[in-house]
Amino acid sequence: MTEAMAAAPLSRAELEVALRAIGAERYHNRHPFHRRLHGGDCSKSEVKAWALNRYFYQAMIPVKDAAILGSMPDPALRREWRRRIADHDGSAAGEGGIARWLALTDALGLDRDLVVSTRGILPGTRFAVEAYVAFCRTRPLLEAIAASLTELFSPALIGERVAGMLAHYDFVDAGALAYFAARPPQAAEDSAFALAYVLDHARTSEAQQAALAALRFKTDVLWAQLDALWLAYVDGRVPPGAWRPEP
């Protein structure tokens, strides 16, 4: 038996503390690119690059959730989880989180066909997001749900983002940032459900360590996307095929 398997399981309260500690240490609000974005230090081209690349992550969230849904044997659980897909896809064209993200890229002057095609995104963005989708498709249900718990930490980040961007960038307004107005209550509801599920089902030390590792993996996915943005658009090392700002 490994040390983790042999150890006594954490209590529910201890496990929640351990999960939240991962966010405090590793969530991407601590990344230098986000600090640059929220502090008003990004050029418009850097903001456009961030929105363009982040679109791929937003667009793949319902794909990820559909993969998780397919591994749920309980109809009640599926009913709860499929709401996440509706939140992103909407109930009709022009609705939902993906449509609101496209309103942001439109406001920034990005060509919508380019955004939706994802042909201009960074290789690092594509690899990170596809790794997350593959993780949720192939790992046990507990781990896939635990990986979603970065939503515990997103409302505070969103508040910081909206305030910082409205204060510092005259090329965005509240309408362009509508995605962020809708997301905090959704994230709070989603994360409360996912947290309860993980605390209820991670009862052994082995399961708890797997859940913690899944959440660390997800923070790595988010961090890697920002690393790619920094390298390409702050350091100026744009890889072949990726979107390039106009000179």
Order of helices and strands: HHHHHHHHHHHH
Q: Return Rg in Å.
A: 18 Å
Give the overall shape, derived from the CA principal axes. Answer: globular
Structural domain count: 1
Portion in beta strands: under 5%
Give the averaged pLDDT, no decimals.
95
Low-pLDDT regions: none
The biggest beta sheet is recorded as:
none
Beginning-to-end CA distance, first to last residue: 59 Å
What is the fourth-level CATH superfamily? Heme oxygenase-like
The number of distinct β-strands equals: 0
Can you count the helices?
12
Structure in a nutshell:
Helix content is 72%, strand content 0%.
Helix-strand blueprint:
Elements (H helix, E strand, L loop, with lengths): L2 H4 L5 H15 L5 H7 L5 H26 L5 H15 L6 H12 L4 H6 L5 H16 L2 H7 L6 H15 L9 H24 L3 H30 L13
Helix pairs in contact: 2-12, 4-5, 4-6, 4-8, 4-12, 5-6, 6-11, 8-12, 9-11, 9-12, 10-11
Structural key phrases:
single chain; 247 residues; mainly alpha; Heme Oxygenase, Chain A; 12 helices; 0% strand; globular
Question: What does it look like?
Answer:
The protein is mainly alpha-helical and 247 residues long. The chain has helices spanning 3-6, 12-26, 32-38, 44-69, 75-89, 96-107, 112-117, 123-138, 141-147, 154-168, 178-201, 205-234. The longest helix is centred in the C-terminal third of the chain and has 30 residues, at 205-234. It is globular, with a radius of gyration of 18 Å.
